[in-house]
Amino acid sequence: MKKIITTTKAPAPIGPYSQAILTGNTLYTSGQIAINPETGALVLDDITTEAKQVMQNLKAVLDEAGMTFENVIKTTIFLSDMNNFAEVNAVYGSYFNEATAPARETVAVLTLPKSVNVEISVIAVK
Description:
- The protein has helices at residues 47-64, 85-93; strands at 2-5, 20-23, 26-29, 72-79, 103-108, 118-125.
- It contains 2 helices and 6 strands; from the N terminus they run βββαβαββ.
- The chain is α+β, with helices and mostly antiparallel strands.
- It is globular and about 40 Å long.
- It has one domain: CATH 3.30.1330.40.
């Protein structure tokens, strides 16, 4: 059975999808981009600020499901420009304990929704 996870502390979906789905003990989040959930505005000042907003949005979804970044077992990072990898990786790394960090892939894509620079999704387990 699946449970839809929704929080106002992360951006509302901009299409026919849920912020996250919890099935059993496993949470699958949709990709998060740098939308400020309070204003609905994109946060694109610089790649570091953008990545922080993405991670804060993921944190809000995890919180709503009763989880933390310690529960994350897999992440996917989409970048519109691989030259932003170091900055995004630094922000991303600040949310995880390196010794217990999840599996991950990072891929470069041609474009992302709303022409953002980074999108991240996670899978977490209680």
